[in-house]
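Appendix B. One record, verbatim.
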Amino acid sequence: MSGTLSNVYNNVSNALLINAEAMGKLQEQASTGSRINRISDDATSAFKVLGLGSQQKSLDNYINTITETTDSLELSSGIIQNIISSLSNVRSQITQVSSGIYTDDARERTAEGINDILEQVVTLANTKNLGQYIFGGGNTETAPYQVERTDGRITSVTYHGSLQNRNVEVADGMQTNPLLVGEEVFHSDNRGDCLFFGSTGSQAGTGTSNIEGDTWLTVTGSEGNWNLSIDGGLTTFTSDGTDTNLAVINSTNGQVLYVDTTQISETGVDLVCSPGTYDLFGMLISVRDLLKNDANLSESQIKDFQDTILNSVEEINSLLVQKEVSLGSKINFLEGLKESLTDMKYTAEDESTRLQEADIAQITVDLTRREILYQMSLSIAGKVLSVSLLDFI
């Protein structure tokens, strides 16, 4: 008999415990609003929720990266637009000067204005965003453009940034570069044949010259003993007038201009243009120096060279317009990608919520049913366990 009573007690206790645990779980779900509060509640759904949570964090990281990348690219685009506007002003001033509207004094003032523009664009090209130089490519810690000055004026601008991009991941398996390589933005790379403008009679040699932008070729001496220089007379190269491919070297940068000297007939200064190799800064330096007439050119030479040098302004302007359009397309693509990733994130959040969210109405019904069952169990257990020895006499 004792064994039977013991079994009854154990069974009743276990039944009450199971029912109490079920009510506790339902009460927890009702208070938290979550169907899964621990992995044991629903291992399969809990695993899915963890995966969705990881996906949301990954998407959040991508979205933040795209936001930072877009901000950087929009800043770069704004700077390029600013420079394009400045070049429009330069082009207008050169046109007015070449038309003869400006006096020498006005031309000097125009040169100073272009010098101010040069100073401005160097500053813009060295812009930092979040502690990084935006036109330095992969080198974000050093100013990409360094200048050399003579008597306070910029005489050369050299790129010291990286020629490699620093890519960031903006989606699974997709990368882009938030920082630009300045050499690709402000420097043409489509070399054409050298063009000679002037009265000395010098012509292009048979060799492939590597000069860039505009170069001033100075011819001195006399027939049979011509001296040629492209570095302002720092170094000269002599020809008897029979050389068809004389290498004239710039001692300051190592660039070489091959000259055919057979048609040289007089001394003077020629402008040698290398289309497809202009850079923004060198072009502005050339325009400024031409207007200041540091080479002591005649009025007719200045007018001829002004017409010619306008082509270099157009070349750089076209390059910058292409870069600005390309940046606009990239920004639009990234904005679209950001929207897609945001939609994916919301979908993952909705799915996670669906898996976790408790059905309060159903929980209320289940909890009421459990409470009634628990009360009934207590009542029955009270009657069963109230058996005494008298009941067996």
